[in-house]
Write a structure and sequence with these properties.
Chain lengths: 67, 368
């Protein structure tokens, strides 16, 4: 399986930024500083379970409902 | 009037506070921010500054050098005073015990009670936060991460200094002096604000991935599965014993597009590398090379001036490592001059705060 990491990252950015340009930048920077490069994954990236788990934890920290 | 600055290099706290008060006579501030050399008694300074400006929110911190419009100073107190033309509203809160506790939610509850708005809902275009933290607490990353988790409002600021003694830094607020603490201010600027984050580095094409770290100690044990110091030296093509002398010119950057979030090495400990901010396991970092601080800062400011048309004041959080580099190169005066025509307050920091904890930047809050 591939692409789930990018999907989760995109969901966090979309929900937390509400599509506002200024918040897209800060949300991406927050992810980067939490150890997840928001531009470092694409649809072909392997679904590394450790990274998926880490991103889900970050979503909780950022108050983003992933459902 | 909006914003004025004042500074004093007199010898006693009493004379300094009196001097600053004299320079501000006729001005009715609602907010006073000040940065002070660590040579002054912190309790006495904080108490007297609050007494002098009774009707204002007064806060600040100790420094490793002060900046005021056009000048870089040492052994002084520099202040910026705001009235309602520049700061429409302000609320300050002190978070104590930051080494061991997360007091950000408590501070945020104070803001929510004051502004009657949840921090998660606060308009990030109307409000800006300022944070000044104990520069020897090692807690800045946690503070900034928690802040960023709970709000979209940008908090910018810095870690307090103590003139390179590395013994004790102080935060001033409410007429008291604090250690192991941070002061947070949530400000509603009257005419808007912006942020400048500038650093003078270009990324080299050499990257290192942190494969073993001790986050709490801000230490990298391994890059690319090799002892960190060896990997860093190899990447630069230098002997390990010379690595320390390259830290200022060649820090590392967590790259966001072309923009580095700089992580500055502090020292080599055995085979490990200690940094001035933490690096998480798995982070890929680019080796950076320094460029010219004066010309880069001048350009960053010119671009912001052109974008905003006018700037009424700047708070410049300026890394001590940049100050040291400017001193080495004899560029201190030239750097100060960049800000000579804008009311400016700043200090040489032990790290800057903007979204996270960063190094070797000038991170500036710009008031329109």
């Amino acid at each position: 399986m591939a692409g789930q990491i990018k999907e989760l990252i995109d969901t966090i950015i979309a929900k937390r930024s509400k599509g506002l340009k200024g918040l897209i930048y800060t949300t991406k920077a927050k992810l980067l500083l939490k150890g997840i490069d928001p531009d470092g994954y694409n649809e072909a990236s392997d679904d590394n379970p450790l990274i998926l788990e880490r991103i889900r934890k970050i979503a909780v920290e950022l108050g983003v409902d992933m459902r | 009037m909006g914003i004025i600055t004042a500074h004093s290099s007199k010898e006693t706290v009493r004379d300094i506070v009196s001097d600053i008060g004299h320079q501000a006579s006729g001005f009715a501030p609602n907010t006073v921010i000040y940065f002070a050399s660590s040579c002054f008694d912190p309790e006495s300074l904080s108490r007297q500054m609050q007494e002098k400006f009774k009707n204002a929110s007064v806060f600040g911190c100790s420094t490793a050098g002060e900046i005021v419009s056009g000048k870089m100073l040492k052994g002084s107190v520099a202040a910026m005073l705001f009235d309602t033309e520049s700061v429409a509203d302000i609320c300050i809160a002190v978070a104590e015990n930051i080494r061991s506790e997360n007091r950000v939610p408590e501070a945020f509850r104070q803001f929510e009670a004051y502004y009657r708005t949840q921090m998660a809902e606060m308009d990030f275009e109307k409000y800006v936060g300022v944070i000044l933290a104990d520069g020897l607490s090692g807690a800045e990353e946690r503070l900034m991460e928690k802040i960023g988790d709970l709000t979209d409002v940008v908090f910018i600021g810095a870690s307090a200094g103590d003139d390179l003694k590395f013994k004790q830094t102080y935060i001033y607020a409410n007429g008291k002096a604090y250690t192991d603490a941070a002061v947070l201010a949530l400000i509603r600027p009257a005419k808007g604000f912006d942020v400048i984050k500038t650093q003078s580095f270009c990324a080299l094409d050499r990257k290192l991935t942190a494969t073993k770290v001790n986050e709490a100690k801000r230490t990298v044990l391994e890059f690319d599965f090799k002892p960190a110091a060896m990997a860093y030296a190899e990447a630069l093509g230098i002997p390990v014993k010379e690595a320390g002398s390259h830290f200022m010119r060649h820090p590392m950057g967590l790259m966001f597009g072309d923009e580095p979030y700089v992580r500055s090495p502090q020292q080599i400990r055995g085979n490990d590398m200690a940094f001035y901010c933490n690096i998480k396991e798995g982070m890929e970092l680019s080796l950076l090379e320094s460029t010219d601080i004066v010309s880069d800062t001048r350009q960053a400011l010119a671009e912001k001036k052109a974008e905003l048309n006018s700037i009424s004041g700047i708070i410049n959080f300026h890394c001590i490592l940049r100050t040291l580099e400017l001193e080495q190169k004899g560029q201190t005066e030239a750097y100060g001059n960049i800000f000579s025509d804008i009311p400016t307050l700043g200090f040489s920091t032990y790290g800057e705060e903007y979204i996270g904890h960063i190094n070797q930047t000038s991170t500036m809050l710009v008031f329109r």
